[in-house]
């Protein structure tokens, strides 16, 4: 993947080629709509791997927190929402950004 991002119009005009590159050659493409709106086109396989790694990281964080509690290193905490729990564990909320 290059650091240069394609503009949205160029990406749209070449979408078939970009999808083929992502799916078959595992080439990611950065796409920019504006300075603040950017995305990356990757293969579904790579996307699934990213999700798997995120889940593993979340499980490791929760496991470490439970182990610390069991060792008496932390107190039990109550949370008003799942988002508060994830924030306390320094993890992205489900559906949020990592």
TrEMBL record:
Pfam families: PhdYeFM_antitox (PF02604). It comes from the Bacteria. SUPFAM superfamilies: YefM-like. Belongs to the phD/YefM antitoxin family. Antitoxin component of a type II toxin-antitoxin (TA) system. This is Antitoxin. It comes from Streptosporangium sandarakinum. The lineage of its organism: Bacteria, Bacillati, Actinomycetota, Actinomycetes, Streptosporangiales.
């Amino acid at each position: 993947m290059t650091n240069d991002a394609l503009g949205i119009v160029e990406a749209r005009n070449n979408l078939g080629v970009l999808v083929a590159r992502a799916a078959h050659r595992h080439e990611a493409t950065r796409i920019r709509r504006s300075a603040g709106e950017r995305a990356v086109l990757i293969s579904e396989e790579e996307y699934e791997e990213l999700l798997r790694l995120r889940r593993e990281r979340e499980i490791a964080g929760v496991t470490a927190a439970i182990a610390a509690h069991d060792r008496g290193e932390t107190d039990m905490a109550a949370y008003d929402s799942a988002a508060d729990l994830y924030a306390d564990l320094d993890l992205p909320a489900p559906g949020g950004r990592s």
